[in-house]
Amino acid sequence: MMRGPQRGYTLVEVLIAVTVFAILAGTVYAALNTLSQAAFVHRERSAELAELQRALVRLETDLRQLTVRPVRASDRQLLPALAGQAGQLEATRAGWANPQQHRRSQLQRFAWSANGDRLVRTSWSVTDRTPATPAVAEEVLAGLEGLEFGYYSADGRWLEQWPEDGASAGLPRAVRYRMETTGFGQVERIVVLP
Predict the structure, then answer these.
(1) Percentage of the chain surpassing pLDDT 70?
(2) Cα→Cα distances 130→48, 68, 84, 142, Å
(3) How far is CA 168 from CA 162, 165, 175, 177, in A?
(4) Which of 52, 105, 156, 173 has its Cα between 20 and 30 A from that of 37?
(5) Residue boundaries of the structural domains of the chain
(6) Cα separation of 147 and 130, whole Å?
(7) What's the per-residue H, E or C state across 10-74?
């Protein structure tokens, strides 16, 4: 019995098909790998931007709720409502939320400063503190390269210190802050005070 010619692929045709498939698979893998890396970088940048935005909102919220309330320091010295230098500020704010209804004031004393490459917010549970009053320091932002505050006086000058040379302990008209960050460069804002 004679069989007809069998049709099939030759070894060369199979090798060509496997080679084409390998080239296509390598190209697709490279494209998917690039997209995956881009998505990872995007997620990291988004997280860094969200951290920066949260820090700016917290700082501006503190500044917008400043109140003219001098306080007594732990050494019984009277501090102005806002005591600021070029690299840090300490002030009293109103509107401290109290959802647990603790027996405390709605005023809070806080400070903003740089600690190495971190932006730190320090707060105290009472406004007039004693040496035993604990401070709560919270790192708000990482990757800080520089921090600078400026204070706009009633006579239209930007000052590096508030109050200026023991002048009135009121509030300046505005506070300017500049932050130099590793990921986003310089951020500068002016907050007009109430």
Answers:
(1) 92
(2) 37, 20, 21, 30
(3) 9, 9, 16, 22
(4) 52
(5) 60-192
(6) 28
(7) CHHHHHHHHHHHHHHHHHHHHHHHHHHHHHHHHHHHHHHHHHHHHHHHHHHHHHHCECCCCEECC
Distance CA 152, CA 164 (A): 11
Looking at residue 3, its pLDDT comes to 67
pLDDT, one tens digit per residue, over 126-140 is 888 888 888 899 999
Cβ-contact 175, 189 below 8 angstroms:
no
What CATH number does domain 60-192 carry, 3.40.50.300, 3.10.610.10, 3.40.50.150, 3.40.50.2300? 3.10.610.10
- The Cα 153–Cα 159 span in angstroms is 7
Tell me the pTM: 0.77
